Amino acid sequence: MKKLAINGGKKVREEFFPAYITVGDEEKQALSRVIDSGVLSKYLGAWHEQFYGGPEVLAFEKEWAQYYGVKHAIAVNSATSAIYCAVGASGVGPGDEVVVAPYSMICSATAPLVYNAVPVFADIEDEFFCISPEAFEKVITPRTKVVIIVNILGVPYDVEKINAIAKKHNILVIEDASQSPGIKYKGQFAGTFGDMGIFSLNYHKHIHTGEGGFVVTNDDDLAQKVRLIRNHADAVVGSIGMADVVNMIGFNYRMTELQAAVGREQLKKLRGLIEQRIENVAYLEERLKDFPVLKAAKPREGGEHAYYVHAFLYNQKEMDGVHRDKYVEAVAAELMPFIIREKEGVTLGGRNTPLYMQPIFQKKNAYKHSCPFSCPHYEGNVSYEAGICPTVERLFYEELIVHELMRPPMTKKDIDDVATAFIKVWENRGELK
Ligand SMILES: *Cc1c(COP(=O)(O)O)cnc(C)c1O
């Protein structure tokens, strides 16, 4: 008789896992306060007292800046908008290159295209999955103006090495900390090590406002440019007599009062939610300590891990040559999805396709006439061919197993089921031949 659920056996788990829900009465009260005020957003897209937004947005920005210990925190309607603002404020444009991570959410690699700059991929570290300092240095050219470094999965990037290389080559650092809010590296918050830091408040992140994001910076000039791009810069730069208006095309990336009110409550919960994740991961790793198939990815020395998601490295040999994809398919069949998100199924695997494999890069067709790749101002010849970042390809296609089965309110008993499923498939690996 077959034992594995993928072959018709009984599942390890028959019940849904509990949903990750971070909002409750506090957020309801905050929303009521805004509804009662009648003002759901209080921006004016003109040089005016309300150019910077309403009372909830301003309070949220102040609280975010205090929390992270930065001079400026600028609220926007997503991290995607935040990265667009940051890239715009950096001043890059046609002919420039921006170094980006191949392993991330796609907007952290496509953002330079919005300003007609060319993204250049640098391979990742095989332990922490952030851009590797060696790979970064190798792709730098005289055209490189900015690097968008991502604290991927919740691990802070190699701050000392990357920042030193950036400084040497006069490259501005944008730190995408969307997956690493509220954690520290050597006593300082991740997200505050670059010239600008990015945070996300989308539904999938540690804390959320439905949609939302932040740019943080200690630089007054960059902060002002971000604020302008967020809110119709082109309608405002004349009134304030701004001399250099490069990239000062305005958008509407404004956060509403409703989101800001929710976010102020969410920020209070952040640390507690991270601590629960750290605790759950420790328990799962302890359960699988001697399990030969999976090796847990560790935090970087000197830093915490936010565990946006948790990662294992897969040892195919210990599974008698069974491919990672087959293994995770069998493990997923033993388990159940999160309630509320049932339709997503149990997601286990490499998670982020190497970004240069996406059509926008493969076709080099961000805009008509293959701009900006064949722009007359661009003197480089960037490659997006398969193989340019071998580490990310090996990890994504063969070795990484990324999962969310450690998010609160998962209990130890829930996590026991996860560990049991991983082990059961190994014990019955003969069935997968
Ligand atoms: C989620 C995420 C984003 C985009 O966030 P949005 O708020 O949905 O725009 C960007 N970068 C990284 C690394 C992310 O995880």
Structure description:
By secondary structure, the chain is of the alpha/beta class. Helix content is 35%, strand content 12%. The protein contains 13 helices and twelve strands. The chain has helices spanning 25-37, 55-68, 79-90, 107-114, 133-139, 159-168, 220-230, 233-236, 257-287, 324-334, 359-362, 390-399, 412-427; strands at residues 72-76, 97-100, 118-121, 144-150, 172-176, 184-185, 188-189, 196-200, 213-217, 294-296, 310-314, 400-403. Helix 2 packs parallel to helix 9 (257-287) and helix 10 (324-334) crosses helix 13. The model has no long low-confidence stretch (mean pLDDT 97). It binds pyridoxal-5'-phosphate. Pyridoxal-5'-phosphate binds next to helix 3 and helix 4.
List the helices and strands and how they pair.
Blueprint: H1 25-37, H2 55-68, E1 72-76, H3 79-90, E2 97-100, H4 107-114, E3 118-121, H5 133-139, E4 144-150, H6 159-168, E5 172-176, E6 184-185, E7 188-189, E8 196-200, E9 213-217, H7 220-230, H8 233-236, H9 257-287, E10 294-296, E11 310-314, H10 324-334, H11 359-362, H12 390-399, E12 400-403, H13 412-427
Parallel strand pairs: 2-3, 2-4, 4-5, 5-8
Antiparallel strand pairs: 1-9, 6-7, 8-9, 10-11, 11-12
Helix pairs in contact: 1-9, 2-9, 3-4, 3-7, 9-13, 10-13
Residues 78-80, 104-105, 107-108, 150, 176, 178-179, 200, 202, 213 line the site of pyridoxal-5'-phosphate (PLP).
